[in-house]
Design brief:
By secondary structure, the protein is an alpha+beta fold. It has six helices and three strands. The protein is elongated and about 85 Å long.
């Protein structure tokens, strides 16, 4: 009886699953890249014999372009060793246009307890400033009671 891995490899070799096999080989190639490049890859695809990498940030694109000769030589070595990705002739990269993360922060809530106790001497001589300090004292005392 055949093992499950044998059956899966046989299925991946069939033409109807060639896209899955291609993605598996590209993923294996991405794992061969240095971690500094690998962590910036959002997704990848092949179009017209060009392997496109969509990157997360423009800084990753700059580093990717700087190390492009190294990446291309790694691809050639991968093609020779694994006899895979032979249809890929070139590599290009771009920054993926993903919407920025929306952080839902409720700033009205207090994250830390009040450290002040409100027992300070108000030495303000101007009436408006004196009243502002007294309002601050009321706010501090109100937070301490909670």
């Amino acid at each position: 009886m055949k093992k499950a891995s044998d059956i899966i490899s046989h299925l991946l070799d069939s033409p109807c699953f060639s896209e899955i096999s291609l993605r598996k080989n590209i993923q294996a190639f991405v794992y061969c890249l240095p971690f500094s490049l690998r962590r910036g890859v959002a997704f990848f695809y092949v179009k017209e014999n060009v392997l496109f990498f969509a990157l997360n940030h423009p800084a990753f694109l700059q580093e990717f372009n700087y190390k492009m000769p190294t990446i291309k030589s790694a691809l050639k070595q991968y093609q020779q060793l694994k006899n895979a990705l032979l249809e890929v002739a070139d590599i290009k990269a771009f920054v993926a246009k993903t919407p920025p993360l929306k952080l839902d922060l409720n700033l009205s809530e207090s994250f830390y307890g009040e450290l002040a106790c409100g027992d300070f001497e108000n030495l303000a001589k101007d009436k408006e400033i004196f009243e502002k300090f007294e309002k601050i004292r009321e706010i501090i005392l109100c937070h301490n009671q909670k």
